[in-house]
Amino acid sequence: MTSNQEIIAKSEAAFIGTYSRFSAAMVRGSGCRLEDAEGKSYLDFLAGIAVCSLGHCHPEVTKAICEQAKTLVHVSNLFHTIPQTELATLLVNNSFADRIFFTNSGAEANEAAIKLARKYSPQGRYEIITLEGSFHGRTLATIAATGQPKFREGFEPMPSGFKTAPFGDVEALSSMINETTCAIMVEPLQGESGVRPLSRDYLTAIRELCDRHDLLLIFDEVQVGMGRTGSLFAYQQLGVTPDIMSLAKALANGLPLGAILTTDTVAAAFGPGTHASTFGGNPVSCAAGLAVMTIMLEEGFMATVLERGQYLANSLQKLAEKHPTLATGTRGVGLIQALVLTEKGIQHGAQIIKTLFQNGILANFAGNSVLRFIPPLIVTEFEINEMHETLDKVLSTFK
Fold first, then answer.
1. Measured CA distances, 126 to 42, 155, 174, 246 (Å)
2. How far is CA 217 from CA 105, 142, 175, 309, in A?
3. I need a labelling partner for 158 at 20 to 30 A (CA). Which of 32, 134, 202, 227 fits?
């Protein structure tokens, strides 16, 4: 098979149709660029949905994967391994946490966080409050926790024990707390509902509610953790520390790996047999994660992410001002940025993304309200300028 269409036809004949995919079969990647089966190059401002934060096939990550794959691939969690232990130590030493548990994915990490919150809390306290617009995964428990009804349609009945509070309304959130509540679970920035950051004041008020009612605060940093916002974890620049934090996506730059981190006190609720993961913390994934962490902890890395994030935000703001019938402005933190669309822009959102793809730029339409840009954290000003010029031309065709 050499053409996109040959590969796509064979793929579509075999797969359950859960995805609406772009019409390209990607065969290789390097840095911020991907190449399809027919040699067409794409500038990637999607990064595998915030996964390939060091770009595609980063040499240090690839080297770590290959060396580990030649040495030890899997032994289960019935044994200790060196890469798992070293990555766990590095994550704990660079966060609020004392303890960690590795998973395969973000949904599995959030499942673990939900179970840990319930296990830690006194008997009869099991309910978790999440926020309208949130997205916590695709398993039954995590779609029950997700604050977007569209993800639950057709899968009812949902697991009980989840409530959704209106976004930004502290009084409403407070009024929903009762004797069965055990935790509040939030994303510091909601990515899937349109790149909506939670303000420092809002998060501080949620932390105070948790402290007042003896509830756990869970931060879902699956998308915004690992440098996406310009600090290793988003909570570190918000002045609010969670009790449990979930990670995944960029943790191993493309290999499946997730985690929850927590304190000694909370972690003590889990003992042998209470929770497990067959593949979680796989040595190859952890070797990749170790390479990722080593690079992200280098002096100046996060400062560059913040600098490039501001450059991207300024670039998008200029486009919003140039195309006011389509866009109203920008929002985001670090290198998760959005062009906020007008009603007219929203009508064309999906087609704008499709036209960008046809012109060699990868991005996505998030929350039915914004164009979302989440490039690798190594993106350059030259590449941002290239995206800007193409997006400008595309937006001009929708006037």
1. 46, 22, 17, 19
2. 20, 16, 17, 28
3. 202
- 360 and 387 Cβ atoms separated by less than 8 Å: no
What are 238's two structure tokens? 């918000």
Assign 3-state DSSP to the chain and report helix, strand, coil percentages, each to 5: 40, 20, 40
**Per annotation, catalytic residue among 220, 233, 243, 365:** 220
pLDDT tens per residue, range 185-224: 999 999 999 999 999 999 999 999 999 999 999 999 999 9
Say whether 25 sits in a helix, a strand or coil. Answer: coil
Series of mean pLDDT values for 10-residue runs along the chain (399 residues): 90 95 97 98 98 98 98 97 98 98 98 98 98 97 97 96 98 98 98 95 98 98 98 97 98 98 98 96 98 98 98 98 98 98 97 98 97 98 98 95
Helix 283-296 to helix 82-93 angle (10° resolution) is: 40
Bridge-based pairing of strands 196-197 and 162-165 is unpaired
Residue of 45, 135, 219, 373 marked catalytic: 135
163 is catalytic: no
> Catalytic residue at 150?
no
To the query of whether residue 399 is one of the catalytic residues in this protein, the response is no
- The candidate with the shortest Cα–Cα distance to 359, out of 328, 392, 311, 336, is 392
Spacing of C-alpha 203 from chain mean position: 19
pTM above 0.90, yes or no: yes
Q: Is the peptide bond before 324 cis (omega within 30 degrees of 0)?
A: no
Q: What are the tokens at 41?
A: 């190059």
